[in-house]
């Protein structure tokens, strides 16, 4: 798994792409925690929300970190289209 994370400030219009070191295995809470731990500490402490697909590990990570969590619009719409 090669985690790719987009970081954007609350008032900003530009997202910065962060490509992190490859992790063995698939999407798991442990792998996502390791991926987020690679983000510089001064940036990591300013994270307040996580927008993602509805993968359980990312929802748990957001809850564990005290972040807000939102499922991205694309994934919400695709659920309804598949329904």
Question: Can you describe this structure?
Answer:
- The chain has 83 residues and is of the alpha+beta class.
- 40% of the residues lie in helices and 19% in strands.
- The protein has 4 helices and 4 strands, in the order E-E-H-H-E-H-E-H.
- The strands form 2 sheets. The protein has a two-stranded antiparallel sheet with strand order 1-2. The chain has a two-stranded parallel sheet with strand order 3-4.
- Helix 1 packs across helix 3.
- The radius of gyration is 13 Å and the shape is globular.
- The mean pLDDT is 87.
Radius of gyration: 13 Å
CA(first)-CA(last) distance = 29 Å
Strand content: 15-25%
Q: Work out the helicity level.
A: 25-40%
Molecular shape: globular
State mean pLDDT (0 to 100 scale): 87
Order of helices and strands: EEHHEHEH
What structural class do helix, strand and pairing data support?
Answer: alpha+beta
**Count of distinct strands:** 4
**Number of helices in the DSSP assignment:** 4
Report the major sheet: 2 strands, antiparallel
Low-confidence parts, pLDDT < 50 over ≥5 residues? none
- Strand order, biggest sheet? 1-2
What is the gist of this entry?
This protein is of the alpha+beta class. Helix content is 40%, strand content 19%.
Compile the SSE list and pairings.
Elements: E1 4-7, E2 16-19, H1 29-37, H2 41-44, E3 49-52, H3 56-65, E4 68-71, H4 73-82
